[in-house]
Amino acid sequence: MGLFKRMAKKKLEKQIARHMGALDRRPLEESSHPEIQELFHPHSLIGPKKGYPLYQMFHDFSKMPVTSIRNFVDLKKVEEILRRDKIISKLLRKHPSLEQEMEDTILSAVFERGVKASNYWKAAPKSYIDAIVKAAGEKPNPMNELVGRKVKALFGEKAKPRTIVDIGTFSGGTILKAIEQLSMEQRKVTKIYLVDVNEDVVNNHAVPALKRLGVPEKNIITILTGFYNASIEYKYIKKPFHERNSWKEKSSRKKFRELIDRADAVIGGAATINFAHDSEITLKTIKKMLKEGGQLILWEWGSPEVREKKVNIERMKKTVLYENPKGKITEFDAYASFLSFWMKFFNYPEIATEKLIQEINSSKEFDFLEWIEKKVDWLEKLRIESGKPRLADPAGYRNRAYRLGRELIEESKKQGLKVIEHSYPLAEPGKLSTGNVNYMIVVEK
Fold first, then answer.
1. To bridge 43 with a disulfide, which of 51, 286, 372, 393 should be the other Cys (CB 3.0-4.6 Å)?
2. pLDDT tens for residues 413-443?
């Protein structure tokens, strides 16, 4: 590529990033072209108070898997908006060959939006953080217990130096259950890397709890940044535009360098890898960290609804996700369970969930986002009459990019990782159980 074309391409990338809101550190709703912001984050332009409760429910679609974006955002419309920009239109006229890279450039900007959208966790309201920490403390998740057992099985009984990388640590729900399974001698020689964007919650909850379990302070290393910075450090992705003039993340990224081929286990739970826009890049990054024989031990939420807005109910009822001694768990089981969970999270009474499931069951196709928008006045009336509290801000129906377990398994195989386990260990066919969407994968390098 000639010098002038390279310069033109960089200018095009920068101008597209500007309109997509990914160029600087301002909030997306302030930095994005308003028409583009409306496509990616409905209701955000009117603010949390005026837009309540839809503002809290619908978060940025750029956080979805790259494979699903087109099903929720009209990227052709995005392109039309961008082409109206004088600088972009002039660049494309002067360098027609850039037309071939237009789509990829837009998708790169979508990725950077997704990275930036994750940053709200750095400064999420204390009330929201406290609510999540409290919930995690009062109701230990059995999936975290299962991760702990897998770590114990991998480490065995012998006490020898080991390294665990915990992705998305937050208050420590997953890593603490893993360490509890180890002997006191093993805890003393295990080095733990905690990766999370929220410095306060890691340092005030996870670190003290690990020390109380007998892990030496010198063996607890915090990497207080998004996991995508590991991918930047390993040269799998470029540094996002909104961070290119900042040195803030540099020291954190250096810590990822010392993890190359060092991790015995990379663990995570509850929407860690699912926060990733591109699972291929994330799994490549994890593979680079793992030593030979090291394992990724992960539990996640996975619901079919994130692949398309309007799902085919009849097809989902016939599609088996997993089969255990209790019976077959279908995509419909996961879908209905997932939406039932969110209705409770939105603080709507049981009658609202019953109405939702009834309408899903009687439909050939169903669009949950459309249903919520049509029913929101009725739902809010029910919530208020039942004395339920308002949603926390940010609440976020779609702030996680949920994937099915089989999708991560397929990608793991492509990366040359050996599949040890893929299961839905808490699944109950025909019941509205969150176990129907909680899957576990274990893969080995």
1. 51
2. 999 999 999 999 999 988 999 899 999 999 9
